[in-house]
Amino acid sequence: MNKLLRLVTFIVAISFSLNAFAVLNNMLVSGELRTRAYYQENVADLNDAVDDDFGRIEQRVRLGHDAELTDGVHVVITGEATGLWGSQDSGVSSGSTEGTGDLPEGYVDFQDIRTSDWSARIGRQHLNLGRGFLISDNEKEISYDALLITGEFPTWTINLVAAKLAESQILKGIRSRSLVPDADWNLYIADVQWRDENIMPLGLGAYVIYAEDDTDLGREPLVLGARADYTGEIWAAWGEVAYETGDVGSQELDAIAVDVGASVSLAVNWSPKLKVGYTYASGDGDPASGDYESFEPLGQYRYYGHSLSPRMSNIHIFNASASIQPHELWNVAVDYYHYIQDEKVAGIVGNPLLTDPGIMKPTTGLDDSIGDEVDVSVTYEYTDDVKAQILLAYFMPGDAYGTEDDDALEIRGEILVSF
Question: Residue 133 in contact with residue 242, Cβ under 8 Å?
């Protein structure tokens, strides 16, 4: 099945590429400069006695070109340079990126092929599925070499994807990922969405994902998922469930993940917004049973607390948040998270796929209480193109890490300029 899918993908890609020659009609140049300053305490080991506090300043520069050709053909190329202030290293080693260049985007977009409702995008690109629960383009950090075919109809959207995770995009952080198994996913996705705003602000979706890990871990999840979302003037709600079957080595995969929540926005002074959410991903408490029940999070790139930064596996996450706008240019938000292990097992909770991979100290397996976190952010929109933010994330470990662990703190300041 895998060889057949690759052959079909290759033939389709070549057939489109042969027709990609056209006259340049228009060229759009865009860019982004993101500077982030970090200060962290006890994130590495939750221990005040060890001097692991550190600060750094990261910078990401992106320059993109969108060339509009004839016959609805677009070529998009985005170059990127990332690095740490003051670094002399221009290479990548041990999972760190002190200074490097990359190509996060480089694709051809064929729109309304032969005046039909179908389009195709071929090349390196970001992918997003629904709200980004499993496959996310949040922060534009993860890229895929992919073929995306999309059908746009009055109330239906169909997406068909064959993609390979771009290996140079797997990790953007500065820590080693040696403590957590690597992944090199090939993804095959069929996603269907329905939405009709004339009836109600409701969206429904369903998807199938076949994932194949090219490493020697033998992981081949088959994911069946469904989602729904409602967005009214005051209330909003969402829900998604994903069931995984397939194989992990010699074991049969049997795992599930759920993401549900609701929010209310009040039309009063300071525009307060309240939100509650619950996220769950199953764990495996008995590896000898023959079934592998730990959920495989695939391309998860959403933060459920910036200090802990949990991986979407073996976890319950309870979230409550509130935000206000004291001025049209200012936004203040507070998020509270409570974390519990689904199964009491020893392991790392942080997610090495994220730019900031979170707590790397492993749990003991003797207790399921991971801990609590409070995140406070203040965002200032200087202009439409310039934004500044400061974020404070404070994590209080539970007994899953032991009985004498210290709190962890992360402070992050950011300036984002885009054009």
Answer: yes
